[in-house]
Amino acid sequence: MGFEYQCRFRKESIRPTLAFPNRHSILRPIVRLKIVHQEASIEVMALIDSGADTCLFDAEIGEAIGIPIEEGKIEQTKGVADQRTDVYYHDVEIEVREKRWKARVGFVRSLGIGALAGREGFFTKFKVCLDQSRAITTLTE
């Protein structure tokens, strides 16, 4: 039997908005990833984001494991509201539970990225099922 992993969505506090004045929390599909570079590694909680073309991480995450961020292959990407951001790509290994694979991921110096598990490098590795009604993510090969 192939790899299968399930994890529950994580409840996160949010500020109420004009559109949703009574909402104080939201369930998000979050997965614990280990990013490995040479002999160093770091664990992060990444938002599983089918809208992200690639896996993206704050530059500080890469620097914590010795990645020279600005030496990566640079590209500009467009995000929400057509905002342009420089992304520095590096080859790393990503691990979920006992499953490890090579991936090219991006590091950014903009506020609020955190960690995004995107289509290239994450969705290309697994069949990803986000079951909103049960608040469960299932990853299978």
Task: Tag the structure with descriptive keywords.
single chain, three-stranded antiparallel β-sheet, 141 residues, 1 helix, 4% helix, mainly beta, globular
The total count of strands amounts to 12
By DSSP (H or I, 4+ residues per run), the number of helices equals 1
Biggest pleated sheet:
6 strands, mixed, barrel
What percent strand?
A: over 45%
Strand arrangement in the largest pleated sheet:
4-5-10-6-9-8
Shape: globular
Query: Which parts are unreliable, with pLDDT below 50 for 5 consecutive residues or more?
Result: none
- Assembly state: single chain
Instruction: Measure the end-to-end span.
Output: 9 Å
Report Rg: 16 Å
